[in-house]
Design a protein that fits this description.
Oligomer: single chain
CATH superfamily of the largest domain: NAD(P)-binding Rossmann-like Domain
Strand content: 5-15%
Order of helices and strands: EHEHEHEHHEHEEHEHEHHHHHH
CATH architecture of the largest domain: 3-Layer(aba) Sandwich
Length: 292
């Protein structure tokens, strides 16, 4: 069976899931979708000539690969387990691919539950944000068995710029934690740098235009410095989502003995941003607490 003839299901049509499922549909794969808000699933079905179903079990029925992107560990359990969960509707040999940023523990838990039913499971959190999902340019970090990964990789390629199996179940989620540790430190450093440039009387825009050509360059600098200087944060990856991710990785660090003082400090800074009314602001809003 070639990739485009595989039957796929997508569970969760949020700001990431909707465009990712759209890329699958545009590839010619028959797509069935489920979303907690049924109206969004119906809109997707109309836009992409797909099928919408009322429960995860119904959406997953007869699918070769079932994808998901939901909010957290409990949301993930709710769409996979139980009489209306996807696992109940999947056929033996099918593979479940989860793009939620969740804990490594829930990935291992659901992998064991899937394997007991003769199913495959790949934890596959992503990086690249809404724009990456819309442009098919996500980075996908996977954990699971090689055979299951090889089966789903061609479909993931519909919306990924980079995709790699990082190890056994849970390794994808652990890799995403590394990603978020890096991002947290980068954004705080950029916020402090821009704040310092202004206080020093420099043209912060000119400073960035120069130093982005050297060792200080980063994706955050390239894509966020202008909106940070303008105080615009009503877009992008929300502070409350980043705090969810930081809570997951800080918990993992407590269990594995890793020392993450900067990540813990940045989490505190984000709690201050939330108190300023910035729960849904982009993560680049760290500069707001410095310039309030």
């Amino acid at each position: 069976m070639n990739g485009s003839s595989l039957r796929v299901a997508y569970l969760g049509l949020g700001v990431m899931g909707y465009p990712m499922a759209g890329h699958l549909a545009k590839s010619g794969r028959p797509v069935t979708v489920y979303n907690r808000t049924a109206e969004k699933a119906q809109r997707f079905a109309a836009q992409y000539s797909a099928q919408a179903r009322a429960t995860p079990r119904e959406a997953a029925y007869e699918a070769d690969i079932v994808f998901s992107c939901v909010g957290n560990d409990d949301d993930l359990r709710s769409i996979t387990l139980g009489p209306d969960g996807a696992f109940e509707g999947m056929s033996k040999g099918a593979v479940f691919v989860d793009h939620t940023t969740a804990s490594a523990n829930v990935a291992r838990e659901l992998n064991a539950a899937a394997n007991a039913l003769g199913l495959g499971f790949i934890d596959a959190p992503v990086s690249g944000g809404q724009s990456g999902a819309e442009n098919g340019a996500l980075t996908v970090m996977c954990g699971g068995e090689v055979a299951h990964f090889q089966r789903v990789e061609p479909s993931i390629a519909c919306y990924a710029r980079a995709c790699r199996l990082m190890g056994p179940s849970g390794a994808g989620q652990l890799t995403k934690m590394v990603n978020q540790i890096c991002i947290a430190g980068l954004i705080q450093s950029l916020a402090e740098a821009l704040h310092f440039a202004r206080r020093a009387g420099l043209d912060a825009e000119a400073v960035v235009d120069l130093i982005k050509n050297g060792a200080a360059q980063s994706w955050q600098m390239e894509n966020r410095h202008k909106t940070m200087l303008a105080g615009e944060f009503d877009f992008g990856f929300a502070v409350e989502w980043m705090r969810k991710d930081l809570a997951i990785l800080l918990d993992a660090a407590r269990n594995n003995g890793a020392h993450l003082p900067v990540a813990a400090l940045v989490d505190q800074f984000y709690s201050e941003v939330e108190k300023m009314g910035g729960r849904r602001w982009d993560t680049s809003s760290l500069i707001a607490r410095l310039e309030r």
